[in-house]
Specification:
Helix content: 25-40%
Strand content: 15-25%
Number of strands: 5
Radius of gyration: 13 Å
Order of helices and strands: EEHHHEEE
Structural class: alpha+beta
Number of helices: 3
Distance between the termini: 16 Å
């Protein structure tokens, strides 16, 4: 069975985007990719606003599904993180990345 999760990326302007991860959504499964994303923000490699930063999470998830972080290949998915319009009802974890505070919070649902 898959461990599903959502990731919310937000900033102080009130903007936020939501991403869905269908499998490996437990903390040990997402820790590396979410920390990679946040470290890129902290280092100034990507901007610290939702509009310009969030797409990089899709790229990180794409690399993960193409063997750099995980050998699993799912041709019908772009990557591990998919944009979504809502918090899904079947998730086990909700992660919030605050771009202004440069933090990741984890909530078991």
């Amino acid at each position: 069975m898959s461990t599903r999760c959502n990731v919310v990326i937000k900033d102080d302007s009130g903007d936020e985007l939501i991403f869905y991860r269908h499998s490996d959504g437990y903390p040990e499964g997402v820790k590396e990719s979410l920390n990679t994303f946040l470290n890129m923000v902290k280092q100034g490699l990507i901007r610290d606003n939702v509009m310009q930063a969030a797409g990089h999470l899709i790229l990180i998830g794409h690399e993960e599904y193409n063997g750099r972080l995980n050998s699993t290949s799912m041709g019908w998915k772009v990557g591990a993180y998919e944009p979504t319009t809502q918090i899904h009802g079947d998730i086990e974890y909700l992660y919030t990345i605050d771009l202004d505070k440069k933090t990741i919070t984890t909530k078991a649902v």
